[in-house]
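Exercise 7.
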Amino acid sequence: MRKLFGTDGIRAVAGESPLDPKTIYAVGLALAHQLQMSSQQPRVILGMDTRESSEWIAGVLAAGLSKGGAATESAGVITTPAIAYLARKHRFSAGVVISASHNPWHDNGIKIFGGDGYKLPDEVELRIEEEIFKQLATVPAIDPSAVAALQPKEHYRAEYEAFLLSAVPALALGEMKLVLDCANGAASAIAPELFARLGGHIQLTHVQPDGRNINADCGALYPATVAAETKATQSDIGVTFDGDADRALFADAQGRVVNGDAILLLAARDLKTKGLLHKDTVVATTMSNMGLEAALKRDGITMLRAPVGDKYVLEMMQANAASLGGEQSGHILFPHLATTGDGLLTALVVLDIVRRSGKLLHELLADLKVFPQVIVNIRVKEKKPLMEFATIADTIHAAENELNGNGRVVVRYSGTEPLARVMIEAESEALMRRHADFIADAIRDELGA
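Solution. The predicted structure, written as C-alpha cells, is:
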C-alpha cells in the first residue's frame, strides 16, 4: 500500500514531511533511478505553480535528480497539463509538476508524469516510494538556500499555447463577453496571452499571484466567485481554474455555477452529433449526479462510474475505449486531444460548442435536472476502513435503506487530504441532509481529528 503518493502525487505542508528538503531530494534520487531502467541518460521537464515554496522545492528535487543521473529542464510557472504535453512532445523521460492544485498556499506537492504524458501507474509509484524510504536512511540534510535555482526556458510556454490554439482551430470569440478567474495560480501565466488571441471581451480576475494568494477565495474551489462576477458584468460565460489549471468550472449568464457533470453532458452531445462518441459511452465517477446519468440515458448514452480521481477515470476509459470522461470537480478528459485533464483546453472546447450552437450556456443545459446533493467533509486523524466501525456501517446502511433506490450514498476518503467525504443525493433535500449529518457525526465520533 502506498504511503506517500495519493490519487494525485505527493502532497503536504511545504517544509514538513514528506515535503521536507531531505525527502524531496530522496524523491529526485528515486525517480532518477527508476527512469534509468529504461534510459541511460534520462531527461526530466519540470514546471511549477505560483506558491512561494514551489521554487525551492523544484531546486531541491532537481538536485536529487541530478545526483541520481537525470538532467532537468525547467518550464517555469506553467500548468500541470502543459508539462504532460511537453513531456510527450519532446520525449522527456518524465514530467514533474510542483503544485498542490486547489489546496491553500502553505501546501505543495509533487506530481509525476511518464514520458508518454500519462500519470504514473500505482505500481510504479509504489516502487519509487520503496526506494525513497531506502534513500532516506543515507541522504544528508539538505539546505534549500544552498541549492541553485532553476532557470526556466520560456519557449515551452509558447509551445503549449500554440498547442491549445491548434486543438480548437476554428474558435473565435467575436463579441462574446467572458470572465476568467485564474485563481492566482498557474493559469495566470498563460490565460491572458492565450485569450487575447481569440477576440471577445475578456475580464481577467485573480491574475496577480504573490506566492500566498493562490486559491484564496477564488478559483475552482470557490466557483460562486466567478458566478457572481459573470452575472454582475452581464457576461455570457465565466470560467474558473484551480491552482495548477488541470480543471475548470463555469458560470452561465444567469450567475449559476456549471460543474463538470454539466460539461460532460454538453461535450457528450457534441461528440455524438459528430459521430466521435465511441460506443456512445461516457465515464464519470461515483460522485457524479444521478441527473447526469438520466440526461445521458435520454440521449442514448451509457454512463460508467469510476472511483474518484482522474487517473482512475482514465483507466476505465481506456478499458472501455471511451472517448470522453471526467469528474464533477471539472477534470474533463478528451483523449483525442490530450493525455490528462486540462482546464484551459476544456474552456476552449466549451466555448467552441457554445459559439457553434448560437445559444447561451444555460439554454444548452436546460434539460439537466440535478438531484439535490450534499457533500460533508470530516477531518480525520487516520484513514482506517470506514466499514470496520459498526456505528459508521449501521448509519450508512440506514441511509441506503431509507433512500431505497431514490438516491445515493457515497462515503470515501480524500486521496489528497486527511478528510472523509460524505456525499448523499436524494429527491428529498431534508432526508438528504439528515442522513449526511448522521453519517458525518458517526465518522467524527470514531475518527475525528
